[in-house]
Design a protein that fits this description.
alpha/beta; Rossmann fold; 5-stranded mixed β-sheet; two-stranded parallel sheet; 16% strand
C-alpha cells in the first residue's frame, strides 16, 4: 500500500494557492470541519472541528461529523478538505470522504450552510459522493501537489483532483466558475 493513500496518513495539507482561491469564492472561511491546528495556520478558519490535541483519525473524524456546522441564523462559509480512506477494512465500509460529504448535504438541508467548497483528493469522489455532480465542480488540469505536514510540497501527486462548490443561503456559482476556470474544467450546473 502506498503510504499517502493509507487512512493512517491523511495529513496532506491544501496548498496555499488553493486556499487563497477558495477565499476569493467564499469570502471568509468560517468553518473547516476536518482540520488540525497546524493546517488552520494556512486555512485561517474561524472555527475548526478537528481534534488538535488528538491525532487519532477515527476520533478526529467523528468529532467533525458529529458537530452542527452552523445555524439558519448564522450559516457558515465552509471549507472542507476531508480525510481519505475508508472507515474500516471491509469492502463495504464507507469512505471517510463520503461521510463528510453526506454531513455537508445534511447541514445544507438544515439551512446551516451559507456556501461551501469541498475538495476531493481523487475524482473518484464524484462517483462515490451522492449527488456530487449536481453542483458546480472543477476538475483540475494538473494534479494538486498537496503539502506534507512539515509544509514542504509533495512533488509526485498521483491522483486527479476535483473541487465542488455547494451553494446554500448564498450562490456564488458564477464567482466559483470565474475563479477556477484557469485551473481546470468547470462542470455541472451554475448560473
Amino acid at each position: 500500500m502506498i503510504a499517502q493513500h493509507s487512512s493512517k496518513n491523511d495529513a496532506w495539507m491544501t496548498p496555499v494557492w488553493l486556499i487563497e482561491a477558495a477565499r476569493d469564492v467564499l469570502g471568509t472561511i468560517d468553518l473547516d470541519p476536518a482540520s488540525t491546528a497546524e493546517a488552520n495556520l494556512r486555512v485561517k478558519a474561524t472555527y475548526l472541528y478537528g481534534a488538535p490535541q488528538n491525532n487519532d483519525l477515527v476520533e478526529r473524524d467523528h468529532h467533525g461529523i458529529a458537530q452542527i456546522w452552523g445555524s439558519p441564523e448564522y450559516p457558515q462559509n465552509v471549507w472542507c478538505n476531508p480525510p481519505g480512506g475508508k472507515t474500516g477494512p471491509a469492502p463495504k465500509d464507507p469512505s471517510r470522504t463520503a461521510l463528510f460529504w453526506d454531513h455537508l448535504l445534511e447541514e445544507r438541508t438544515r439551512g446551516h450552510i451559507n456556501h461551501a467548497l469541498f475538495l476531493l483528493f481523487n475524482i473518484e469522489g464524484l462517483r462515490t459522493c451522492r449527488h456530487a455532480t449536481s453542483f458546480p465542480f472543477c476538475i483540475f488540469d494538473k494534479r494538486i501537489a498537496f503539502d506534507n505536514p512539515d509544509g514542504s510540497s509533495n512533488r509526485s501527486p498521483t491522483h486527479a483532483n476535483a473541487l465542488i462548490y455547494v451553494p446554500g443561503h448564498a450562490d456564488c456559482s458564477d464567482v466559483f466558475a470565474e475563479t477556477f476556470q484557469s485551473h481546470g474544467s468547470i462542470c455541472g450546473p451554475w448560473k
